[in-house]
Amino acid sequence: MHLVYLRMMLKMGRIRKFRPSRTLARKQGTIQPKLKIYAFCEGMNTEPKFIREFSREQSNGLVSVEAIGAAGAPFQIVSSAVMKKLELEKVAASSGDSLDEKFEVWAVFDKDEHPKIPEAFQKAASNNIHVAFSNPCFELWPALHYKNQSAPIHRHKLQSDLSKLIPNYKNKGSKEVAFSDLPDEYTLARSRAIALTKEHVAVGTPLGNPYTDVYQLFDKIIHNGK
Question: Superkingdom, according to UniProt (predicted)?
Answer without folding.
Answer: Bacteria
